[in-house]
Amino acid sequence: MNKSVVFGALTVAGLAASAAAAGTMDDVKARGTLNCGVTTGLVGFAAPDANGEWNGFDVSVCRAVAAAVLGDASAVTFVPTTGKTRFTALASGEIDLLARNTTWTFSRDVDLKFTFVGVNYYDGQGFMVPKELGVSSAKDLDGATVCIQTGTTTELNLADFFRTNNISYEPVPIETNAEAQQQYLAGACDVYTTDASGLAATRASFEDPAGHALLPEIISKEPLGPLVRHGDNEWGDVVRWTLNAIITAEELGVTSANVAEIASSTDNPEIKRLLGSEGTLGEMLGLDAEWAKRAIMAGGNYGEIFAKNIGEETPIGLARGLNAQWTEGGLLYSPPFR
Amino acid sequence: MTTLTDPPKEQFRLSMLLYDTRYRSATIQVIAMLCFMLLAAWLINNTAQNLAALGKPIDFGFFSEPASYDINQRLLEYTSRDTHLRAALMGLLNTLVVAVLGCITATIIGVFVGVLRLSSNWLVARIMTVYVEMFRNVPVLLWIVLAMAIMIESLPAPRAFRGEDPTATMKLFDSVAITNRGVYVPEFLFSRSLGNIHLFGDSSLRFDISLDLMAVLVVLALSIFAMRKVAAKAAATQEATGDRPKIWYIQLGLLFVPMAILLTVLGCHFGYPELKGFNFKGGTYMRNSLIALWLALSLYTAAFIAEIVRAGILAISKGQTEAASALGIRPGKTMRLVILPQALRVIIPPMISNYLNLTKNSSLAIAVGYMDITGTMGGITMNQTGRELECVLLLMLAYLIISLSISAVMNWYNNSVKLVER
């Protein structure tokens, strides 16, 4: 018996790394829903209502994108993320888009490899204290215990602010806004610091909002905006121009109420291009002609979204301030639709 | 006439690797090993390539950059200008603190509960059963969160101590302040301090050694050494004459007199906490996060340790107790001198794994904002630098080293108590 067993060479095959992530837009269309990362709950920006429907300023961005891409503003799977988990969720592909009042910074853009598609809220970091403490300036906070959400830029600004002013503090790192609220209200921390808009939203949910004051100091620039992964420019364009579409809509006077008839009645060529009755902007994005129309119908233009969720008529009561259109002295300035 | 021929010399053929039982199992093991190594190589290669494609090749350079965030509980000096490496070191020390504290208290509570669960007193035994079942069967995260919530909601805030007629007062002759931010206890201060030795210059690993603490430890070690000498001499006298001389007052004197002299020389006094501004100042501050985590981890792990202790005691045959009472040894001494030393051999090995569990469970610290190594390196540093893979790998390495060290120490102890076979 001279049967020799030949060991086949062990071929090392198929070691090629998976190709660069395929088009996110194709994935979203194939899946039929948009996976959108939001906060774990911040009234006005993103929070589920009594029926479990997510609502809010950031949620509206998700809905507008879903309406533009999928034609259905409700085709969104909301993924609650904390300050710590949000970037991992986006980088790993668990979510297609992060709309979670996230500050646009150099290192997040360049080093963490994310593309910020624009700014939907110009904010700054503020401090909230109980009025009974009698504090009138953040510089009086020497020795105070400060609640911060961990994994945020506020953590770094806070360290810098106290260091440059040469005063001490005791940081209490906290995962979510709800926990921060609990500790702050129980007096386990003297001060709560986060973006001023977030403070206003948190205060609005207190039993006694008047008992708490926002200090006058705004210690940082916090341009908040939606972001996507680096490396998929087509998807980045879709989200960027959906955001620009709702900002431009306000500038041009297109609202969710008049969007249906203004497309045909107007003579303004930019409105026509925006709403798809002229030109092929939608096709260039890889969408149909009416993408922007659907995005605007989903929640209204920027002004409507602002007024409905966080504006002066709501308990949160934020003024437009920096977030007014450039024509009204604000910073909102969308590139032209051309 | 016969000619003897050598038996045909068996030649090695490749087919024998498969058909000869002497080689077969080795062949299979080699192939399995190769497959396993290929799989591992593929995973590593794939990860490296994907990271490179993302533009994030593996790089540990970020550890020397400033961390830019503050850490509340720091055992060494640290500012937000220090490096990520030093921030990770602070986290590591915090992990070790809660792990060591937790292991000690869990052992004490566990042994008590385990012994009491065997008590003949019906009520005590049942209460201990309820304790064990409650803590063992609810996830430890919930206990941690509950402990924190109780601390925050039920204890007074520092501002309750203020004013003419405060709603809260300090305990134990105004020396201890119990607030919902933590507990402030008096600290030792030395008015004629010997100073510190500074090690490692300006590097990320720099630390100070307190000469006062060293002096205290040296004196304590010498005292204990002298006490042992005295005890050995007493034992020798007992061997020779049958009379054991009274030595307890010499022992006490050896322990306390040198220490008292040293502390007087160093000018030791207490520093009491005082309400200043927003918070208490002075004293040693044990943060609510540390206490909640420590308490929850201890109580949770103690429930498991109690069961191990009970099992260890029940494993000792009843004849041992009966033999001990036949010799006239009282029940307390029977437990201490006869049962527990034998039970330890059964108890120690599962105890090691509970210590390891406690240490690993301490990574839930971020639920209450305790800045352990998961919170610093695996939390804020990872988040700010975006170096997920590097941070997680180092984090795993850190826990691996801590766990292996605990195992090594406990195995050494286990070897020292195990039955000596002749």
From TrEMBL, chain B:
One of its GO terms (cellular component) is ATP-binding cassette (ABC) transporter complex. The chain crosses the membrane at residues 23-44, 96-118, 130-152, 209-227, 248-272, 292-316, 392-413. One of its GO terms (molecular function) is transmembrane transporter activity. Its main location: membrane. Keywords: Amino-acid transport, Cell membrane, Membrane, Transmembrane, Transmembrane helix, Transport. It is a multi-pass membrane protein. It comes from the Bacteria. InterPro entries: AA_ABC_transptr_permease_3TM, ArtM/GltK/GlnP/TcyL/YhdX-like, MetI-like, MetI-like_sf. CDD domains: TM_PBP2 (cd06261). It holds the Pfam family BPD_transp_1. The keyword Signal does not apply. SUPFAM superfamilies: MetI-like. GO terms for biological process: amino acid transport. The keyword Metal-binding does not apply. Residues 92-410 form the ABC transmembrane type-1 domain. It is found in: Cell inner membrane; Cell membrane. Belongs to the binding-protein-dependent transport system permease family. HisMQ subfamily. This is Amino acid ABC transporter permease. It comes from Phaeobacter gallaeciensis. The lineage of its organism: Bacteria, Pseudomonadati, Pseudomonadota, Alphaproteobacteria, Rhodobacterales.
